[in-house]
Amino acid sequence: MVIKISKTIENIQQYSQPFHDIEDLNGLIEKASKAKYILLGEATHGTAEFYTIRGEIRKKLIQDHGFTFIAVEGDWPSCYEVNQYVKGHSNYSHAREVLSQFHRWPAWMWANEEIIPLIEWLKAYNLDKKEEDKVGFYGIDVYSLWESMETIVAYLQKINSPDLDKAMQAITCFHPYNKRPEQYGMSAAFLGESCREEVLELLNSIVSKRRKYMEEDKESYLNLQINGLVSKNAEAYYKAMVTDDIESWNIRDYHMVEALEIVSQFYGKAAKGIVWEHNTHIGDARATSMEQEGLVNVGQITREKFGEPNVYAVGFGTYGGTVIAAEKWGDRYKIMDIPPAQLNSWEELLHRAGSFNKYLTFTEENRYFFEHTIGHRAIGVIYEAAYEHYGNYVPSKVSVRYDGFIYVDQSKAVTPIAFSNEGETRLAKDT
Predict the structure, then answer these.
(1) What's the pTM value of the predicted model, to 2 decimals?
(2) Which of 85, 207, 359, 362 has its CA 20 to 30 A from that of 213?
(3) Is residue 155 part of a domain?
């Protein structure tokens, strides 16, 4: 083990490159840009550098390499407001205002200061573009059942659609659960009182009238279609959530890939997408202990579905610093210390190889040197630093899990926008 560790450190030193700014990452960006989908990860949902670095990478990919949309681990309805803003179809005057409608806990994931520069840049970038050439911003997560249903009803009312009756039947079916997914999940799982038939009938009807809806407005139909998809898959997710964590996780990640594919189809054959999610979603599950548990994820599904050459996954990690997280589900966030990484973990070896920011790209030449299983830190929205050694390290074959890795030696917490915890709803589990 001692020989392997010392050799791994030597290999990190040989194959990694230090970085100070976005220009230093051009080698990684150039390699990644050949893929159709670039998956950018994060070891936490509350680290400032992960947002700012990925924001700068995205600018490069859009401006220099023709990427056409961004898909994030966020709710479709809230992110669609951001999409409308960056495309110039919003009454909001500043990104900070549009972020004010991120209410679901943990709101700090998107209602933070670090994301604002990217949103404003996207708006400026799109300003002189034709509608079909504007870069979009979309949330592909599954949680927004009630918000998506309400959006569907409002739109169908607006255009006087014959599908309005089906939408009303579906949303009325969910009314008794008072927007509490755990209540619906318990009822559907144990009492057989499900709304699945209603949401399936609605989605099928929407899809069958695709041409008619697209005559109204193509992106409005995309919004309608994805909200219908969310309604269907969220119903299944919340039902599974109370009985089977593995099934609910897999439903969620399959949904995110399904939504990603629909958005990609909207942008046509030349579409190139940037996906922004936690490492546990974008790093191939087959290279981790997740596989033995029966879990799949976006990284695995996209590689299998679209082909490995079309997917480039970049993991992110840190040795120590601070992070925004909560001690319990639904609690108010705190700035927490991230202790030094566990001895002989991936992050600790990166630190020992040189206590500075660095990146690696895994190639045929060097991938073999990083294929052994090693602990790799993952911090969710709930975090207890005192116990992190017992549950925050995922055994991983790093060079199989990712195509590249960006390491920040000392990181700091994101800065939540002041309103980010006001009125947050506390819905489903999240990593």
Answers:
(1) 0.94
(2) 85
(3) yes
